[in-house]
Design goal:
Layout lengths: L2 H14 L4 H8 L3 H8 L9 H9 L3 H6 L5 E5 L2 E8 L11 E9 L1 H12 L5 E8 L2 H12 L7 E4 L6 E6 L5 E6 L20 E7 L8 E2 L3 E2 H11 L3 E6 L7 H9 L4 E5 H6 L14 H14 L4 E5 L3 E6 L4 E6 L14 H14 L4 H15 L12 H11 L5
Parallel strand pairs: 1-4, 1-8, 2-6, 4-5, 8-11, 11-12, 12-13
Antiparallel strand pairs: 2-3, 6-7, 9-10, 13-14, 14-15
Length: 404
Amino acid sequence: MDAKRIGSTIAALRKKSGMTQLELAQKLDVSDKAVSKWENGQGFPDITAFPRLAALFGVTIDYLMLGEKKGITIAGNILVDIVKNIDIYPKLGMLGTVSDISPAVGGCAPNTAINLAKIDRSVPISVLGRVGTDENGRYVMSQLQKNGINVDGIVYSPHTETGFCDVMSIPSGERTFFHKAGTNAEFCPDDVDIPSLDCDILHIGYILLMKQFDTEDPEYGTVMARFLAAVQKAGIRTSIDVVSDSVVDYGKMITPSLRYCNYAIMNEIEGCTVFGLDAYTSDGALHIQNIRTAMEKMAECGVKNKVILHSKTMSFVLDVPTGAFTQVPSLRIPPEQIKGSVGAGDAFCAGCLYGIYNNYSDRQLLEFASAAAACNLFAANSVDGMKTKNEILKLEEIYGRLSE
């Protein structure tokens, strides 16, 4: 065992948990001098202390022994959702009453990153994007830091406000969004120092909502495609997510990036729309053949490892090297327990990235990701419903799955 590696891991986990050396020592019934020696690499904890340390920090014993992995970087839209609960959605010119207002993080980067951190605190998570120096910027930064996420790669725009959504929510749970791009419209590849990235996977979203990345590139098709190519060249696996938009050319905007993706993760409508296919039959059922065809076409466009699509009732993965196609039904969550669904796609992405990072089989990956997405339904905002890995794994036993 490497005393210095174990010591630095214990120190990092202790600080992430907000404990002093004395507080950790008291929880383990040892002296603070002993903890200090461990962290300085001058000795090991007693073998019986490792299970207690692992349980205390929410990590595995192997993690304590082997140290920190490179982790996952999430890049893209950073928003603050300003959730306003209203009694009714009024007609134009009429009045609706706001009962309460609450802020929450929004956008691919904070949603996916915080969900990952909640799933497993031992995975190093970093975020790349832009915020302003305003109150919303300070809020989202505080929420990321509170969850132990590395924010060194976030750039400040001194003269532009942080992106936000006014979310109007009525008692039935339906919501209407008013989006302001703000600093997200300024986030660009020059904000990312690719050689300094220390991660195994970089996930970026949302394509169609990132002005600088969605710009046309004469060689690569889009600036996003050029950026992903550079990230792959640095030895980092790439992953993308997409936002739904009814007025853009999906094929033109998304297809160029597929060539430089290891993983493409999006919903069933987005995936099918890229190739002009319908995700549903005329009677409202999932058109599974069209979904599979769309996924196979993405593989033909260059996705290297996996294409993953999700819907409310079913999720799918195509393993590109083998051509294996797997589908898994969603969990059967009682309607009375559902408080919201905003951010469910990001929660699903978080589950996928965790499964990929930990080498889950395709079926395990979909089972875990769909259960992570279900956690999102238990809270009104995008992150409060997320549970730990072990809690997520128990949800199928509690709720069961929809029939195929």
